[in-house]
Amino acid sequence: MRLDAVAPLRTATAGWRARGERIVLVPTMGALHAGHLALMAHARTIGDRVVASIFVNPTQFGPTEDFSRYPRDVEADLALLAGAGVDAAYLPGVETMYPPGFSTRIEVADLTEGLCGAFRPGHFTGVATVVAKLVNQVGPDVALFGEKDYQQLRVITRAMRDLDVPVEIRGVPTLREADGLALSSRNRYLTPQERAVAPRLNAVLSRIAGALSAGEPATGPVAEGIADLEAAGFAPVQYLAVCDADTLAPVERVVRPARVLAAAYLGRTRLIDNVPVAPGT
């Protein structure tokens, strides 16, 4: 079922809720790939009804970013969602999400100040605001997000907690190509030559994670990792950092769960990735 407006969406979800059915929301910006479909499959295992939203959110793109060229293929996306057994595809327009006079924003401090937040001012305000609206419109029991956008996951989790929104936010591990490249809608921007280089990002992060789990301090492996990425053709490397998995505060030694996170350009394409780090034994 395709829904484009809030009223019929709420009618559908109210009926499910009245029957005691558990609703799972999977927000997307379309250009669906196997990573999205893995989220839908997971949603079906934990809920009775699955709602997938498709909305390319203009407020999370900066003025020089790729909003206008972000890949869009609604009919292909709808076919994939139907094949994945999604109960409702919600495709609101910009006028539905941001009607005339819209003037409310949700800002999450601390978690948004480093990493991608330092390079994409306003991005996480747009993310937190649109997710709050989607959750309010759908009323799900659970909302699923991929861990590839790890800072986004932490920001959304904090926003929903701080605002007492009755939804469980769950992260789902990143789905990767056989060579380690994290699946992303933006991967289709890569030239064949760039695609051959792109898996180096995950390889570097995994190597750093291994060194940290073995007890090494972060400074040396991170410096080597940046040099490795630059030598491979990533430019600029916006950040490569080791952060606490919960607070995203930088850490030098891993004594509790952490993440190695990076953002770097390969040609015109900005790639992000992260890997978990467990404390050494």
Describe it.
Helices cover 38% and strands 19% of the residues. With 281 residues, the chain is of the alpha/beta class. β5, α7 (150-162) and β6 (168-172) form a beta-alpha-beta unit. The protein has helices spanning 6-18, 34-46, 74-83, 94-97, 116-119, 123-138, 150-162, 192-197, 200-213, 219-232; strands at 2-3, 23-28, 49-54, 88-90, 142-146, 168-172, 237-244, 258-266, 269-277. α6 (123-138) crosses α7 and α9 (200-213) runs antiparallel to α10 (219-232). It has 10 helices and 9 strands. It has 2 domains: 2-172, Rossmann fold; 185-277, 2-Layer Sandwich (Pantoate--beta-alanine Ligase, Chain: A,domain 2), CATH 3.30.1300.
Largest sheet: 6 strands, parallel
Structural class: alpha/beta
**Second CATH tier, the architecture of the largest domain:** 3-Layer(aba) Sandwich
Please mark out the parts with pLDDT under 50 across 5 or more consecutive residues, or reply none: none
Number of domains: 2
Beta-strand share of residues: 15-25%
Write the layout of secondary structure elements.
Layout: E1 2-3, H1 6-18, E2 23-28, H2 34-46, E3 49-54, H3 74-83, E4 88-90, H4 94-97, H5 116-119, H6 123-138, E5 142-146, H7 150-162, E6 168-172, H8 192-197, H9 200-213, H10 219-232, E7 237-244, E8 258-266, E9 269-277
Parallel strand pairs: 1-4, 2-3, 2-5, 3-4, 5-6
Antiparallel strand pairs: 7-8, 8-9
Helix pairs in contact: 6-7, 9-10
